[in-house]
Amino acid sequence: MNKQLLSIENLExxxxxxxxxxxxxxxxxxxxxxxxxxxxxxxxxxxxSVSSLAIMGLLPVNISKIxxxxxxxxxxxxxxxxxxxxxxxxxxxxxxxxQEPMSSLNPSLKCGFQVQEILLQHASLSxxxxxxxxxxxxxxxxxxNPELIFDKYPHEISGGQKQRVMIAMAxxxxxxxxxxxxxxxxxxxxxxxxxxxxxxxxxxETGMSIIxxxxxxxxxxxxxxxxLVMYKGQxxxxxxxxxxxxNPEHNYTKALIASRPSLEVRxxxxxxxxxxxNNQINTEIVSPEDRAQFHDKLYKQAPILEVINVEKEYLSxxxxxxxxxxxxxxxxxxxxxxxxxxxxxxxxxxxxxxxLGNAILQLDKATAGQILYRGQDITxxxxxxxxxxxxxxxxxxxxxxxxxxxxxxxxxxxxxxxKVHGLHKNDxxxxxxTIEILERVGLGAEYFNRYxxxxxxxxxxxxxxxxxxxxxxxxxxxxxxxxxxxxSVQAQVLNLLNELKENFGFTYVxxxxxxAVVKxxxxxxxxxxxxxxxxxxxxxxxxxxPQKEYTKKLIEAIPKGD
Length: 562
Description:
Helix content is 38%, strand content 25%. The protein contains 22 helices and 20 strands. The strands form four sheets. Strands 6-7-8-3-9-10 form a six-stranded mixed β-sheet, sandwiched between helices. α5 crosses α7 (159-171) and α16 (410-420) packs across α17. It is globular.
């Protein structure tokens, strides 16, 4: 049995609100041994990140405090250490990788220098020795061309590469404990798999301990030895990964596993946390016969959208003489979309899926080809005709917060596009319609005068959907519209999108890097790679029998949770 490295005993953390402290972490206890990977799973607000920041002494000053219990790291009580001792502990003995590498890396400093700085500060190496060590770390985290990346700024490298730079920084001083807080959430499924494998390899090689935090239980099962599940500031279940995954005891754990779309069966409705907590689980499935019948009817009609040989080329200036070089983000893409259909669009970052979505929406004009909407080539439309088209073709964005004006109450934000497009007689009617739509998306009249910052991520996504459907569009492009959400909130939003599709006859182009979600939502799936269509087929057929190596690689990278 390995020695105990970390011991959390009856830990209670409180935050100040309106001058009064109230507990957000309620007496949690767990241990972490040397050379062990512990997974912490839970949704936003469950307390996983707060309890981990406390281990590093990084709780926000003046508004939070440890009100009970202790954190023993390598025999020392972290809560009793001075600022100087904590500074020595961080980086040297405990390191952290954050969810969003772009906000953790300094955009004005080169990647190599940022890692070098840590070595100069903590490892007392000379400048030349620290550069050699940084390049060696870049090799260890499998960055291509370490010399090249050493001199690049964060914005010049991909998301996966940025995360590798962060890992190099975290392991630079050979810490005893590495805390990885949602380190793969924003990454493609294939890059996610590479990062998980990399962390496993580094852990085996160095023997350090890892706390791996995620809201995805399937993902945690790929890396952790043991797992603990957090809900509302408490640990509701903990144990060996296989046991928790195969025989969960707590309803919340069961819900976390079941809320994720299955690759085997197609449920009519995804179960949510509330379904499990209220014991109201609907296990009705969509049979292959039901699906075939629906598709038979669907594909007998004329297509609502036809994309013919569409290309989108960007020009970039190279060299001192400004020679222009073309890059095709979308390269000779053709497909048909039928009314009432959901077309899934998948592929890794940079494959051209969002660019294609923007071309369909006429937000970024195609450089070649035709896009026919109800038989009319919309690439040739004038300004007024495009405004009319905007009502018919809408988008639901990935980040609803940045697409809502923080100074406008959400009721007015939903009414605004109705006014622009002259829908309904007056503001009184528009307000009534808005309240009806808010109720439709699971919010109510009481939310009408609230501002975007007063809502959770899942609620904001519902507001985004409400704003989109307010115009009664026919075609909706969902661009990564559930990728930033917790598993159970994601399930609620997917159920809502399917329900709206059924009731209003919407047609969706569903763009995502989450293949399990795309399979669940889609009738057909279109796989994109380097701007081209790699493969297109019925969703179930494509996942059961992928024809191309690229598609096989994407499917194999999905966390299976076994």
